[in-house]
Amino acid sequence: MKNLLLSAIALSAATLTFAPVANAAEVFPSSVQQRRLEFLDTQSKAVGDIQKVRLEHLDTQSKAVDDIQATRLEFLDSQSKAVSDIQKTRLEHLNPPSAL
Questions:
Q1: Considering the domain boundaries, does residue 38 fall inside one?
Q2: What is the spatial distance between Cα 13 and Cα 19, in angstroms, rounded to a whole number?
Q3: What is the mean pLDDT of residues 3-20?
């Protein structure tokens, strides 16, 4: 009987000793997993922000290219008008109005 009582006390002591450790072991993985999820969430947000900045940069570049092309077309149009005016002046010079 004495052995049974000592065994029961030893078992109770062991249970009380290891129960907090077992609970801590259960909490620890979820805590690590929570940190991992927070880290991944932060990375996802950072990637989203980087992609947003890249798209804004590409949009700005596209607008700049459009503006450059418009300026070039305006310049070419002005050159064409100038050439046309020069040719008109030359033709007038070559064919003076007939004097009556």
A1: no
A2: 10
A3: 72
